[in-house]
Amino acid sequence: MQNRELIIEAGRTERLYWKDLWNYRELFYFLAWRDILVRYKQTVIGILWALLRPLLIMLVFTIVFGKIAKLPSEGVPYPILIFAAMLPWQFFANAFSESSNSLLDNANLISKVYFPRLVIPTSSIIVSFVDFLISGIILVGLMLWYNFWPSWRLIALPALIFVAFAAAMGAGLWISALNVKYRDFRYIVPFIVQFGLYISPVGFSSSVVPEQYRIFYSINPMVGVIDGFRWAILGTDVPFYLPGFLLSIGLVAVLLVGGLWFFRKTERTFADII
Amino acid sequence: MSDTIIQVENLGKKYLIKHQQHGGYTALRDVIADKVKSFAKKITFQWNHKQSSTYSTTEEFWALKDISFKVNQGEVVGIIGRNGAGKSTLLKILSRITEPTEGSIRINGRVASLLEVGTGFHPELTGRENVFLNGAILGMGKAEIKRKFDEIVAFSEIEKFLDTPVKRYSSGMYIRLAFAVAAHLEPDILVIDEVLAVGDAAFQKKCLGKMRDVARKGRTVLFVSHNMGAIRQLCRTGLLLESGMLIGNGRVGSVVEKYISDLTRGSGCHWITAEDPTIPLQVLEIYSSNSKNQMCDMFDLSDRIKIVIRHRCCEEMIASVVLVSVFRNGVELLHVFDTDVHTDRLTKRLVGIYTDEIELPKRLFKAGNITISIRTGIVNKLTTFQDVNDVISFSIEEIHENTSFKGYAANRTGVLMATPVWKNIKFSVDSLDSDRNR
After folding, report:
1. B130 and B33 in a common domain
2. What is the domain extent for residue B46?
3. Are residue B391 and residue B349 in the same domain, yes or no?
4. What backbone phi and psi angles, to 5 degrees, belong to B64?
5. Same domain, B163 and B255
6. Residues B60, B12: Cα–Cα separation, whole Å
7. Is the model's pTM score more than 0.90?
8. Which of B 139-198 lie inside 8 A of A, CB atoms?
9. Which residues in chain B have their CB less than 8 angstroms from residue A2's CB?
């Protein structure tokens, strides 16, 4: 028998919370593994579906924004311009929706077993990350097709992925915790995702936004992430708008830290009200 | 061996019950609407100079209050009490699912809780995949599951279907696999809630055996059940809860006795409930009656005992059953479906209200406290519509018969008094005696 003593008391904030989270890392792997298995088992075409969706959206956007509206393409093929933005946006949108609904989807676990609840929204993001990697293949294909070579800036990509991860996580933590108490928050999520696609620079380059409004435009945290992705992947000499990027990063950090705080605060009542 | 492993002090858990609930959960629009309403009321009340003390939508409810006890290492503790007595809340706090409102618990060692069989099973995944998933959810590591995998599969007896998605399993297979995973947990403290209520008799027996093994290995087990037989068999000490209070703590025999005597005193021989349109198949009323068709809570050994049960069916369904379980001193003696006799109801139960009279065979049970539990649901599926334990109770007494020389006297072992047909086929006078007589 270990001499580890556990004390359960009212309002006792777990001092070992983060250590506990580490102890439950295997559960994290298993939940992510389950979500991935289920996702690719349920649909007949499985992985193909993850490829098809972004491909179709890219096609539509290329025709609407590139061919009909004739927006500037920064000197790169329009499909690549769109796809470089599609990647982080799709990742954010999927991860955000998945994690927002994750607690309700796993309500039976929450009311029957103890584990740090943070495991659920974080592991649910992993599925979206797999989708992200798969659609990354399309981008590679597109680049080969257009004979387009990326520059050294590609090494910044992992850091940018991390920012997208943090943005999805921060927003997901807020909505998932609120969802437990107020079920109508789940109707907000599809709205944010749909709305966000149009106010983020996915179908067009953010250089079309007038210079004096760009800092306001960057209040949408995904603007910084998407611009960063384009900068790293396309390697064009479009000037990088640093103040906007820093603002986006700062807002992501606030969102994430706030989300963690709110989640931790409400976590202990989840089992009672879910 | 007698060092304290769990120490609970003045534990309490308070819930707030909202009286205006819309479909079981809160929606933000309702919260906003309520706020606006109460604000509007405040204004109008001020206007009318009335008191606003009537407006209160929440009520406090203590699910547990002032619970203190100790559990020593290697002890098997049975937790008993009626529905809503706070047993499940206590287990939930012990397994850290929910926090107490007051008091504290000190635990020395790893706790694994089993509040439900197959928590986290995913219907789309195969048996093999679910073993790993469920194991991880219950707190096992990947290496640990791999090591015990063969043992788990052997225990569950479903080797052939390991790579079939569990959605194609029968409910029996599902439960066997789920329990097999849980049975191979190796925590210091195991917390179990009523998991034996499911599965067929043979499997229940196997589970009980497994739990006895666990206990024998020096692990501490906390076990909730309505099955007094299992409690008596497995546990050494018992905790009795009633309305959130601990009213009994000690040797399992005396605690079970206390529970049963409280039960008989409390619930009476007549139970009636309001119609609930959300329950498709609902028992509305049940009572015990004597041969003169009068409600009766005390019978003589030789009396005819009848149980009248009225149930309502709201929608035509197949394979639905009304279960009546008869317990004597907490041990289940009879488990009958209404469809055992009325087989037509099994194929198709028509919408309507049914009043049935069940007549127990005469001179079947020995003297003791009889309690009845009812359940409605779909047979062989895990669907339960209504489940009420100890819904009515009555006693059988040795009034007109002196049983002191009888084998079926209440204080002897054995549960039935039904006397077998005992014929003497041959009698021969002993040869030695006959010699002497000559």
Report:
1. no
2. 20-56
3. yes
4. -140, 145
5. yes
6. 12
7. no
8. 139, 141-142, 188
9. 108-110, 188
The residue of chain B with its CA nearest to that of A113 is B97
Same-domain pairing of B325 and B382: yes
* Residues in chain B closer than 8 A to A273 (CB atoms): 25-26
- Do B98 and B156 form a contact (C-beta atoms < 8 A)? no
Total number of domains constituting chain B: 3
Residue B114 counted as domain residue: yes
Residue at B426 is within a domain: no
pLDDT class for A258, splitting at 50, 70, 90?
very high
Same domain, residue pair B176 and B160: yes
User: Which ipTM was obtained for this model?
Assistant: 0.83
Query: Which H or E run contains A264?
Result: helix A242-267
* Residue B13 identity (one-letter amino acid): K
B427, part of any domain:
no
For B145-203, what is each residue's pLDDT tens digit?
Answer: 999 999 999 988 888 899 988 888 887 788 888 888 888 888 888 888 876 555 566 77
Q: Are residues B171 and B228 in the same domain?
A: yes
Minimal-distance CA residue of chain A relative to B27: A182
Contact call for residues B359 and B299 (beta carbons, < 8 A): no
Do residues B157 and B176 make contact, with C-beta atoms less than 8 angstroms apart? yes
State pLDDT tens for residues B247-305. 989 888 888 888 877 765 555 788 888 888 888 999 999 999 988 888 888 888 888 99
